[in-house]
Amino acid sequence: xxxxxxxxxxxxxxxxxxxxxxxxxxxxxxxxxxxxxxxxxxxxxxxxxxxxxxxxxxxxxxxxxxxxxxxxxxxxxxxxxxxxxxxxxxxxxxxxxxxxxxxxxxxxxxxxxxxxxxxxxxxxxxxxxxxxxxxxxxxxxxxxxxxxxxxxxxxxxxxxxxxxxxxxxxxxxxxxxxxxxxxxxxxxxxxxxxxxxxxxxxxxxxxxxxxxxxxxxxxxxxxxxxxxxxxxxxxxxxxxxxxxxxxxxxxxxxxxxxxxxxxxxxxxxxxxxxxxxxxxxxxxxxxxxxxxxxxxxxxxxxxxxxxxxxxxxxxxxxxxxxxxxxxxx
Length: 329
Known about the structure:
Layout: H1 2-34, H2 39-56, H3 66-77, H4 88-103, H5 111-124, H6 155-160, H7 162-179, H8 189-196, H9 206-220, H10 227-244, H11 249-265, H12 268-279, H13 285-302, H14 306-325
Helix pairs in contact: 1-4, 1-5, 2-4, 2-7, 3-14, 4-5, 7-9, 8-10, 9-10, 10-11, 11-12, 11-13, 12-13
């Protein structure tokens, strides 16, 4: 009973977070429709403020959230503290800063962010559930993924001047949004749904500007997922490809998206089901499964699943912090 109540509370808070993001995205769209230049000013400032708060007061809230939940699960299994990755403090920072990112027009998603938020909430209620597992974040990690971008070449400068670096990233995102006519702003939920339904025709530059904006947002260190923005890039590329080669738009988009999901998550069946439900076409199930299996086979030869790789960084940081507190270990 208590375990079910805890899930319901977490679910209600996530619904509230989703509603909050919809409101702020609508407000941003309305403001930029009236005047295109204000993001050039407030987008860098928002990024600098959020990154400053994250690096100073809420370390562990940066990024998408899935990798933190995976790392927390492993640490909890080893009997190590996880409050630096999942806690009410982190959940507050993740939701509030995630909304701030969308107010600034950053291409940041909410699904992967919700994973860490839900894991934080359920971990908080664990103290009243002594018979529960230490942390069941694996039940909260949903299918899907994001584009993995290695940061080794850019980390030294970002570590020395994270706030100024965030300001530069915010300015780049604002310039890309201005050049694309607002096409690269926001998470991309609306664009993806319209492209799948063939309600809009995207300009040729849409995949380029959205990809660059997503990469810059990821490097900035601002809290927020890159799953939805990345999926929007895939939808835009496949839509333009279908138009260029005179192919059927919806099947081409669906096959490209399922290939992307299966490659990133290495979960072909889940990926095929997600895309099949998105396009509401059960007739493509065989084609979707075939592409998903091929993508998974190629991806698994290149390396492990994305979030498992990203979780290593948080595990290494947690181990380093533990060694500093206990030098004898």
